[in-house]
């Protein structure tokens, strides 16, 4: 029995000006409308308000993370500002059009390239 579907999307050579809380919030509103998901709580983790000398300088640590809970699971985003990369997972027990989500998301973040995969969750492989 399948319990849901997960889209894993890695975006490269993005426009880092889209990696703000405002942009990510607007993206999540429009994405959820597009794939017909009901938004719940939204949480951010970033270095907003942290003094410059206390922020990490490693490219794989400096960015914004967000979790958008949806009524059927969640959408998780991690941006890497210096590397201009963005990683997104959409997991839902409700069907959604993953290809629409990929196209919309890659355009929103200005990605020049991307990789993605889709997984059905809860289906056991027969061994």
Structure description:
The protein is α+β, with helices and mostly antiparallel strands and 127 residues long. It has one domain (4-117): S-adenosylmethionine decarboxylase (4-Layer Sandwich), CATH 3.60.90.10. Helices cover 20% and strands 37% of the residues. It has two helices and six strands. The chain has helices at residues 21-34, 98-108; strands at 4-12, 39-45, 65-70, 73-80, 85-92, 113-121. A six-stranded antiparallel β-sheet has the order 2-3-4-5-1-6, with helices on one face. A hairpin with a 4-residue loop joins strand 4 and strand 5. The relative contact order is 0.33.
Summarize the structure.
The protein is of the alpha+beta class. The chain has helices at residues 21-34, 98-108; strands spanning 4-12, 39-45, 65-70, 73-80, 85-92, 113-121.
- Shape by Cα distribution: globular
Q: Overall mean pLDDT score?
A: 93
Please give the CATH class.
Answer: Alpha Beta
Uncertain regions spanning at least 5 consecutive residues? none
Q: Tell me the β content.
A: 35-45%
Proportion in helices? 10-25%
**Total number of helical segments?**
2
CATH superfamily: S-adenosylmethionine decarboxylase
CATH topology: S-adenosylmethionine decarboxylase
| Helix-strand topology string | EHEEEEHE
The rounded distance between the terminal residues' Cα atoms is 16 Å
Strand order of the largest sheet: 2-3-4-5-1-6
Q: Main β-sheet: number of strands, strand sense, barrel status?
A: 6 strands, antiparallel
Overall number of strands: 6
Structural class by helix and strand composition: alpha+beta
Q: Any idea what the radius of gyration is? A: 15 Å
């Amino acid at each position: 029995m399948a319990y849901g579907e997960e889209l894993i999307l890695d975006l490269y050579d993005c426009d880092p000006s889209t990696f703000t809380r405002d942009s990510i919030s607007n993206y999540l509103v429009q994405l959820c409308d597009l794939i017909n998901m009901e938004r719940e709580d939204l949480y951010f983790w970033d270095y907003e308000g942290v003094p410059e000398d206390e922020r990490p300088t490693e490219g794989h640590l400096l960015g914004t993370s967000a979790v958008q809970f949806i009524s059927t699971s969640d959408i998780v985003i991690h941006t890497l500002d210096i590397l201009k990369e963005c990683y997104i997972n959409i997991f839902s027990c409700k069907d959604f059009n993953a290809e629409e989500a990929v196209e919309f998301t890659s355009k929103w973040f200005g990605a020049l390239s991307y990789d993605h995969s889709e997984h059905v969750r809860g289906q056991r492989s027969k061994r």
